[in-house]
Amino acid sequence: MFDFMNMMSKVKEAQAKIKEAQSKLVHLTAEGESGAGLVKVTVNGERKVLTIDLDESLLTPQDKEMLSDLIVAATNIAMEAIDVKIKEAMKSATEGMLPNIPGMDLGSMFG
């Protein structure tokens, strides 16, 4: 027979673990590069840009448009990388907490 109280207890436990894991996301970082490393962008688990590192050779007026494109590309790569790390962290935090219910992927709730 299905134990509803036990299930609710596990849900509350999972919620606490998720909240704890979310508070640690600020410490996750990911880097994206473009232009063969001429532009590097670092983001954190809260999807905030922390740093943008530009090679000095790109700091010329004629390279303005290319520089903009490289920053966008590096930022998008970094965001994709941090999304993977966030999903892994959340999956790890909730692993074994709830039964495997088809169609219910808690990790995807955070990506």
According to CATH, what is the class?
Answer: Alpha Beta
Unreliable residue runs: none
Structural class: alpha+beta
Outline, from the CA principal axes?
rod-shaped
Give the fraction of residues assigned to helices.
40-55%
Question: How much is the average pLDDT?
Answer: 86
Structural domains: how many = 1
CATH superfamily: Nucleoid-associated protein YbaB-like domain
- Largest sheet, spatial ordering of strands: 1-2-3
Radius of gyration: 20 Å
Number of DSSP-assigned strands: 3
Report, as a whole number of angstroms, the end-to-end distance: 34 Å
Percentage of residues in strands: 15-25%
Main sheet: strands, sense, barrel: 3 strands, antiparallel
Figure out the total of helices: 2
Order of helices and strands: HEEEH
CATH architecture annotation name: 2-Layer Sandwich
CATH topology title: Ybab, Chain: A
Subunit structure: Homodimer.
Family: Belongs to the YbaB/EbfC family.
Function: Binds to DNA and alters its conformation. May be involved in regulation of gene expression, nucleoid organization and DNA protection.
Protein name: Nucleoid-associated protein SAMN04488108_3830
